[in-house]
Amino acid sequence: MSNFNEKVSFIWDLADLLRWPYKRSEYQDVILPFVVLKRFDSVLSDTKKQVVEKYNFAAESKIENFDHLLRTTSKNSFYNYSKYDFESLLQDPEHIEQNLLHYIDSFSKNVYDIFENFEIKKQIEKLAKSNILFKLVKKFNSTDIDLHPSKVDNHEMWLIFEELVRKFAESSNEEAGEHFTPRDVIDLMTHLMFIEDKDDIKKDHTIKRIYDPACWTGWMLTNAKTYIKEKINPKADIVLYWQEINPKTFAVSKSDMLLKWEESWNIRWPFSTLWNDLFPNEKFDYILSNPPYGTKWEADEDFVKKEAELWENWRFGAWLPRINDWQLLFLQHMISKMKTNGEKSRISVITNGSPLFTWDAGSWESDIRKFLIESDYLEAIIALPWQLFYNTWIGTYIWILSNQKKKQRIWKIQLIDWTNFWQKMRKSLWEKRRELHPVEHQQKLIDLYHNFEETEFSKIFKNEEFWYTKVVVERPLQLNFQINEERIENLYSISTFSKLSESTQKDITKKEQEIEAGIQLQNDIITSLKIIWEILSQDYEDFSKKVNNALEKNNLKPVFINQIIMALSEHDETAPFILDKKWNKQANTALRDSEKIRLDQDIEEYFKKEVLPYYPDAWMDRSKDKVGYEINFTKYFYKYEPPRSLEDIEADIFKITAEIDELVKEEL
């Protein structure tokens, strides 16, 4: 097999062996560790004999520290000194469980945690009890799945892992798929990250550190390294760092790193980056990530809040978003990993729309955006097409941040609307129905970003564009009052009135008595109000006096009576203003509105021009002013589309109806 999809299909079909002892969602617990084991077995096969001989020599010579000796002999970053391999394991079917366990225990120490996190020994025991262990090993030893490096290089092996993980996530309907970033998006993020730094990376003796705080399988980082090595500087020293909370994806990522001779000590787990940063004192040149979105951070809440209160620890210094979404927490964490002392760092991260504009002025989210914008970290934000990711169809965005912008970008933010640039996939993969063509979509977008020019799809703004003052606009309270059937119904919208017919008593008799008494009081109130039935009035004082007199015998509290009066009112612009005790116009809270006014605009002038022509009696309550920060793509890229004509709609309905009639005739 030369096509990796054929290999994936063969491996995927092995799940047929697992149908009885395993649930469908558990297939990956067996298949993934055995694929890793088979790959290790194939990689080590060329030097297997020599490693076993060296190990036996070391054992006979009582050499205790033989790790370096066997690693050198293996010509890999790991080794296995057992006499067994997949082929020889099949020669002794009766003892395959014990021999396979011995084989796994004979790997070098840097492999131990891979199989521990896969819980492979637990799976081997279960497979043996189910009498399918031998069959599975035999299938994996088939020539149809030759994973030797001469047949499958590291890049193709990465594609196999990637596709298997995606298929398992899809088949088990896992919500954790938000971590899984499509390859076309990873390529785009990588190009955007390095396009501005190519000259720097091309320098001799370049060393770059790249980090992902929520790496999943680590493919985003390995793709970045491959891009630098193949497209920019093959001699650059690229060191990768990542943290992962999920044990199985950690195991996949570490196995991939060992196969590529990466430093596996830079892969750390199993803690959430937010509450236990395993690189607490490290700074990085580049940070790429697709942290999960729409996910609560309540598991990390206590530690994160405690850390945020320690102002000397800057990680969450811009404060905390609401508990239901941790994207802005990850953004702050990534910024804290940027270099200081004049050294440059860049970030490329994916989010949904929430961090851009949710919650209003004065909210924590707005304050975090304030920190990002006023610190001038934001370089560009790109709106991607919908249906681009495997497990979500919603809109997503790539953020590019830098602590050293190029001169023309300083105090400016570039917005790119790329939502309409995509091609339909020949076959949908889960929710992913669209993809980015490498030239027509990816390269054109990269050029648009790099050229830093305004077009129909690229807008460049000063940072101040996204700051605004939220001003409360009040309108006067002008009401008419009347008691009729329609307005009497409004009484039931008053909580105090509606709850009269409810009871919290547990005793049934007392409960019924309390409800009956409440209903009677409701009827008495309505009966009392009928004294002034159908009288329309615009005089608040007069109507209020009449209602108070009518309800005097009901012994109601003044607050309740006032609620009744307001329920019997309607807004009436012909009515006189209702004044407070200081003879000031009272505001109608039902008509209260607000205006978002850019900080570079004069608020008084804006009010005169945009509000007073429509509401001459309005005024601003400047005591309620709040400064907010948001980036609303719709505002800057909105295109008006006139509604379709009735003729066009009728033509479509006629066409569809005719097609349905034809289908019905065919069925008959």
CATH topology term of the largest domain:
Rossmann fold
What oligomeric state best describes the polypeptide chains here? single chain
> Strands across the major sheet, in which order?
3-2-1-4-5-7-6-8-11
Number of domains: 3
Helix % is 40-55%
Largest sheet: 9 strands, mixed
Using the 3D structure, state the CATH architecture of the largest domain.
3-Layer(aba) Sandwich
In round numbers, the mean pLDDT is 91
Low-confidence stretches: none
Query: What's the gyration radius in Å?
Result: 34 Å
Tally of DSSP helical segments: 27
Structural class: alpha/beta
Structural notes for this entry:
- With 668 residues, this protein is an alpha/beta fold.
- It has 3 domains: 4-168; 174-294 and 322-465, Vaccinia Virus protein VP39 (Rossmann fold), CATH 3.40.50; 476-571, no CATH class.
- It is 43% helix and 13% strand.
- It is built from 27 helices and 16 strands.
- Strand 2, helix 14 and strand 3 (267-268) form a beta-alpha-beta unit.
- The mean pLDDT is 91.
Summarize the structure.
This protein is an alpha/beta fold. It contains 27 helices and 16 strands.
Sequence-ordered SSE layout with sheet pairings:
Layout: H1 4-13, H2 27-44, H3 48-60, H4 67-74, H5 86-89, H6 96-105, H7 109-118, H8 120-129, H9 133-140, H10 154-171, H11 183-194, H12 198-201, E1 207-212, H13 219-232, E2 237-243, H14 247-259, E3 267-268, E4 286-289, H15 301-309, H16 327-336, E5 346-351, H17 354-357, H18 364-374, E6 378-383, E7 397-402, E8 412-417, E9 423-429, E10 432-435, H19 438-451, E11 458-462, E12 467-474, E13 479-481, H20 485-489, H21 495-498, H22 508-529, H23 540-550, H24 558-567, E14 569-571, E15 593-598, H25 603-610, E16 619-629, H26 633-637, H27 646-667
Parallel strand pairs: 1-2, 1-4, 2-3, 4-5, 6-8
Antiparallel strand pairs: 5-7, 6-7, 8-11, 9-10, 12-15, 12-16, 13-14
Helix pairs in contact: 1-10, 2-10, 2-14, 3-4, 6-8, 7-14, 11-13, 11-19
